[in-house]
């Protein structure tokens, strides 16, 4: 099968490379000439484990290429995937569909023969209807089916998620569209991936509902962590105790500083707006957003309390800036409000992240970026673990203690055991567990 992927962002690049690895012919299209030139040189614009090798092998095999010219790839394609950005619209939280609509109009002009146009971007319910209307407005004679095929990729594990999915959701009631997309995903049948065909609007809502539910699980366990600290319980044992129930499950029950990234905050806000447009109030999702925003702002106060209530003149070392490990994505990362709060309280902040420092220098010019965890901790009054990079799970704690001005650690990811840290002479605070003072 021959496909065109419109957009070389996270979704477009991962999906295009994986489709090519299935044996399909894929052309990824982007308007950014510099980005396309870099991709043609083998330079990957995002950090995703294994993506550079996957792209290189499929380019070498002649199954994957990149261009700024949309006309040729679309005219030759059996399926055209729209994988452009849908950021939150400034002011109201709705998804901004400017790029989607622009792509639909440009695709319509060059369609040739029967083609399935697929929205892979995360889009509000009803977007497929508008994409179809725009295509038929521009090209009334087009032989086209518009389908929805939302992605469910985790940053840091996207390639595995694409090749071993929990489910593949395809929203179309057209038999020709079902056949084309079924053929594209047929290589996954060896993995017995469930292919779920639904109406187009149902597929669009599934994506938002899934992200909102996962965000709700995270927020729930974070509130249980707050209660655990007050009543003397251990939130990790609480999470395990409820997660062993098959009706609940253990995933996304890890207490921390709040969720961030490119999906959960944006999609939960958009879902609330979609519901309000249809006179429905999603009170649970609204509460999730409010609780999460408040939690991220509260983390700076947690650090202040660990140092006796004042940060003025103190040096704070921050380990981890990206919203999760194995990505360079800092969009709505908990580190951003945390560091802003620390600076507002008069602290000096230095930070280290294995891949996020370049972005940090742009977003947080006031902080000092360090080359490793130990130079970051040197002379610090407290060290805060914000992102659970694997490199931070096996730190030389004796060396860390020697480097620091005060042996105070605030672990927002519960990487270490409180009793071990106290035995090593640290004052240690974590999430949802009793604080430990050095012995």
Structural overview:
With 439 residues, the chain is α/β, with parallel strands linked by helices. A 6-stranded parallel sheet has the order 3-2-1-4-5-6, with helices on both faces. Helix 9 (200-231) crosses helix 11, helix 9 (200-231) packs parallel to helix 12 and helix 12 (283-306) crosses helix 13. Strand 1 (2-6), helix 1 (10-21) and strand 2 form a beta-alpha-beta unit. It has 3 domains: 2-198, Rossmann fold, CATH 3.40.50.720; 208-289, N-(1-d-carboxylethyl)-l-norvaline Dehydrogenase, domain 2 (Orthogonal Bundle); 297-429, 3-Layer(aba) Sandwich (Rossmann fold). It is built from 17 helices and 14 strands.
Ends distance: 66 Å
Please identify the top-level CATH class of the largest domain. Answer: Alpha Beta
CATH domain fold name of the largest domain: Rossmann fold
Biggest sheet descriptor: 6 strands, parallel
So, the CATH homologous superfamily of the largest domain?
Answer: NAD(P)-binding Rossmann-like Domain
Number of domains: 3
Q: What would CATH call the architecture of the largest domain?
A: 3-Layer(aba) Sandwich
CA radius of gyration: 24 Å
Helix content: 40-55%
Q: Which structural class matches the secondary elements?
A: alpha/beta
SSE arrangement:
Elements: E1 2-6, H1 10-21, E2 25-29, H2 33-40, H3 51-60, E3 64-67, H4 71-76, E4 79-82, H5 98-110, E5 115-119, H6 127-138, E6 144-148, H7 158-163, E7 168-171, H8 175-184, E8 195-198, H9 200-231, H10 235-243, H11 264-277, H12 283-306, E9 315-319, H13 335-344, E10 348-352, H14 357-363, E11 368-369, H15 373-377, E12 382-385, H16 397-403, E13 408-411, H17 418-423, E14 427-429
Parallel strand pairs: 1-2, 1-4, 2-3, 4-5, 5-6, 7-8, 9-10, 9-12, 10-11, 12-13, 13-14
Helix pairs in contact: 1-3, 5-6, 9-10, 9-11, 9-12, 11-12, 12-13
């Amino acid at each position: 099968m021959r496909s065109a992927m419109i957009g070389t962002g996270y979704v477009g690049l991962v999906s295009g490379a994986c489709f090519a690895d299935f044996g399909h012919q894929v052309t990824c299209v982007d308007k950014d000439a510099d980005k396309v030139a870099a991709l043609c040189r083998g330079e990957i614009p995002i950090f995703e484990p294994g993506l550079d090798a996957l792209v290189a092998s499929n380019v070498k095999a002649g199954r994957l290429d990149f261009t700024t010219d949309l006309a040729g790839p679309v005219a030759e394609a059996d399926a055209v995937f729209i994988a452009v950005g849908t950021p939150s619209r400034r002011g109201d939280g709705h998804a901004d569909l400017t790029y989607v609509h622009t792509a639909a109009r440009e695709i319509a002009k060059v369609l040739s023969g029967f083609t399935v146009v697929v929205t892979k971007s995360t889009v509000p319910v009803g977007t497929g209807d508008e994409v179809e209307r725009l295509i038929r407005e521009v090209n009334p004679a087009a032989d086209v089916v518009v389908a929805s095929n939302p992605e469910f990729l985790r940053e840091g594990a996207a390639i595995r998620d694409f090749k071993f999915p929990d489910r593949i959701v395809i929203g179309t009631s057209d038999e020709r569209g079902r056949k084309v997309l079924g053929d594209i995903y047929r290589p996954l049948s060896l993995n017995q991936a469930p292919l779920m065909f639904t109406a187009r609007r149902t597929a669009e809502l599934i994506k938002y509902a899934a992200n909102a539910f996962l965000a709700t699980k995270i927020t729930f366990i974070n509130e249980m962590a707050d209660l655990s600290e007050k009543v003397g319980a251990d939130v990790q044992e609480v999470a395990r105790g409820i997660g062993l129930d098959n009706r609940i499950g253990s995933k996304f029950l890890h207490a921390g500083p709040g969720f961030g990234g490119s999906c959960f905050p944006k999609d939960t806000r958009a879902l609330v707006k979609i519901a309000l447009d249809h006179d429905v109030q999603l009170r649970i999702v609204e509460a999730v957003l409010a609780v999460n925003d408040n939690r991220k702002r509260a983390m700076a106060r947690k650090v202040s309390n660990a140092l006796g209530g004042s940060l003025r003149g103190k040096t704070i070392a921050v380990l981890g800036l990206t919203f999760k490990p194995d990505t360079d994505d800092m969009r709505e990362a908990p580190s951003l409000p945390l560091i802003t709060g620390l600076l507002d309280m008069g602290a000096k902040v230095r930070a280290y992240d294995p891949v996020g420092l370049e972005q940090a220098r742009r977003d947080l010019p006031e902080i000092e970026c360090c080359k490793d965890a130990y130079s970051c901790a040197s002379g610090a009054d407290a060290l805060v673990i914000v992102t659970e990079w694997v490199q931070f799970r096996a730190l030389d704690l004796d060396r860390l203690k020697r480097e620091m001005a005060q042996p105070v650690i605030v672990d927002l990811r519960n990487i270490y055991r409180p009793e071990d840290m106290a035995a090593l002479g640290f004052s240690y605070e974590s999430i949802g567990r009793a604080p430990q003072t050095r012995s």
